[in-house]
Amino acid sequence: MSMLGTLLGLPVMGPLGGVSWIAGKLREAVMAEALDPARIEAGLRKLEKRLDAGEITEEEYDVAEAELLAELRAIRAALAEGAP
Predict the structure, then answer these.
(1) How far apart are CA 52 and CA 10, in angstroms?
(2) How far apart are CA 30 and CA 27, in angstroms?
(3) Nearest residue to 68 via CA among 51, 53, 47
(4) Is the separation of the CB atoms in 72 and 43 below 8 Å?
(5) Distances from the Cα of 57 to the Cα of 23, 25, 60, angstroms
(6) Where are the domains of the chain?
(7) How far apart, in whole angstroms, are the C-alpha atoms of residue 60 and residue 68?
(8) How far is CA 80 from the centre of its chain?
(9) What domain of life does the UniProt record list for this protein's source (predicted)?
(10) How far is CA 22 from CA 25, 27, 33, 75, 78, in A?
């Protein structure tokens, strides 16, 4: 793009570039949190505490634990494939 085109497009492209950069950073943060195995491990610990406290039944624990372990396996597989 020519210098003139760049200067004329700056009032529009400048803010759009900033928004695009922010969106990219937000996506990176969300993916990092979503693919954090520590989040699932903490959920498993919390679930076990709820079972020990009598807040949930053994059956509820088993169902929730299976869901969390499936999510943990999916996270580990995604990380092994090189997910961001």
Answers:
(1) 61
(2) 5
(3) 47
(4) no
(5) 42, 41, 5
(6) 1-34, 35-84
(7) 12
(8) 16
(9) Bacteria
(10) 5, 9, 17, 25, 24
pLDDT in the model for residue 78: 85
pLDDT 10s digit of each residue in the chain, 84 long?
Answer: 577 677 667 666 666 666 676 777 777 777 777 778 899 999 999 999 999 999 999 999 999 999 999 999 998 888 888 765
How far apart CA 70 and CA 53 sit, in angstroms, is 24
* Residue where the block lists tokens 């949190």: 33
| Structure token digits, residue 75 | 């996270």
Give the C-alpha separation, 62 to 75, whole Å: 20
